[in-house]
Amino acid sequence: MSSFLGNLWSSVFTPGPTPALVVATNASFAALQLVLFALLLLTYSIHFVVLSLLCAGLWLAINWFVNELQAAKEKEKEAKQIRVLRKEMENGDGESSGTETEAIESRGKSEHPHGRSDTDIPTEARDGALRKRRSLGSTSGDISTDSEWDKVEAEGELDR
């Protein structure tokens, strides 16, 4: 028990959720729930039900946050390992100054700098022939609303 209290005291000054702090937090919330339940039985007051629900919500939120922090730490460790492996691979290929242009040139001409290849681009765009998009409106190409009203008026005169 004294070792747990020592770990708890040191975890207060350690950044992040430590196991001792998480256990102490869960024990505190469980004790609070028991006290609120006992008070509910003694007084039959709805206030203790509301306080118990608030306590349960906070307890769940704290545990969710601790789990998210632990997942983020694991992802950061994985990312750090990947960065170390990439550095080792770059240093193993020869001398590299670490500039982006050298990395792009070393990939080859058929590969796009963002990981796409030339086959992802349509043939017309690769050959330099670009097509003009058709508008969804009229086929005449007039965009102004005045010409649309002229067409409506002309149709109305034809109907008479």
Automatic annotation (TrEMBL):
Chain positions covered by the region annotation Disordered: 84-160
Gene Ontology CC, one term: endoplasmic reticulum membrane
Domain of life: Eukaryota
A GO BP annotation: vacuolar proton-transporting V-type ATPase complex assembly
Pfam families to which the protein is assigned, alphabetical: Pkr1
Compositional bias annotation for Polar residues: 136-146
Basic and acidic residues compositional bias, start-end: 104-130, 148-160
Keywords: Membrane, Transmembrane, Transmembrane helix
Transmembrane regions listed in the UniProt entry: 20-41, 48-66
Protein name, UniProt field: Uncharacterized protein
